Amino acid sequence: MYILDLVKCSSDNSCDQCLNFRLLGFRLSESIPQVDIVNSVVDEVIQVCTHYDRLDNYLKVVDAYMDIILQNQMDIYLNTILEGISRRIFNKEIFEDELGSLQSILMKLLSNTKDLKDVFALSHFLEILDVMCGTPRNVVNISILKIASRNGYLRDPTIIQLLFEITQSLHYGLDFANMKDDDNQQATRLISRFIQMVDYGGAVEQHLTFLVECRGAFGSINEIKETLVHSSNFLATKALKDGEKHLSFVKSCLAFCEVTIPSISAQIRQLNLYLETAEVMLYLFMLLF
């Protein structure tokens, strides 16, 4: 607390106090201080930060205390920080250094979560993510999709829509013309994995509509179009197990595949997908005749 008092007394027109608070936060994160000391320091620092008008200074300080706040489950301070960021980014151009700090803060938040529902439910999280761009935004998007890929099937329509928007943002943010790039290949795998994890249950028509939307969003990527064909054939096979109840839907799935497969550039992959789709069609004919 003595060090904290010294830092508070260092206030002047420079950013010395900001940097000193930042250094103190990192030092606390490296040690294992008593809980009461942590609470007192964080409370004091957050109170001081509320008077910072510059986004850059605010981010530099709160970033240094994120690990402490998350490890000690100090949710009230987390909400205060996110609200403070939201207020300072309103109608403001975000510069490169600030984007780097935002990336650091959101990545620390994501590394301490197991369920995306909890993160998406945080006030201002999506708002902050939305103002980010470039590499920092891509890094955060990839981290979100990695977490999603560990959580099994996705059945919540709200979560599905949010993740779809995140995959679109990732698609826009990367140069998919160069598919040999490691980041692009990773992004492609994550988008494909997201599509595979979506499950609308008995709402098969809604699921097919989702696949159509994905084809419109990611139609330039062969690997994702392959995933879409596999998913459509899986839906058709699933529907055929109910007998003749969903025959018109199965025909819609087959039509989806017939439109999608020719747009895939690799002929061998086209052939394999045609064979897979033909098996579904044969299954359909067996039911009809």
UniProtKB/TrEMBL annotation:
The keyword Protein transport belongs to this UniProt entry's keyword annotation: yes
Keyword vocabulary terms for this entry: Endosome, Protein transport, Transport
One cellular component (GO) term of this entry: endosome
Entry keyword Transport: yes
Superkingdom of the organism of origin: Eukaryota
Subcellular location: Endosome
GO process annotations (BP): endocytic recycling; protein transport
Family from the record: Belongs to the VPS35L family.
Protein name (record): UPF0505 protein C16orf62 homolog
Source organism: Rhizophora mucronata
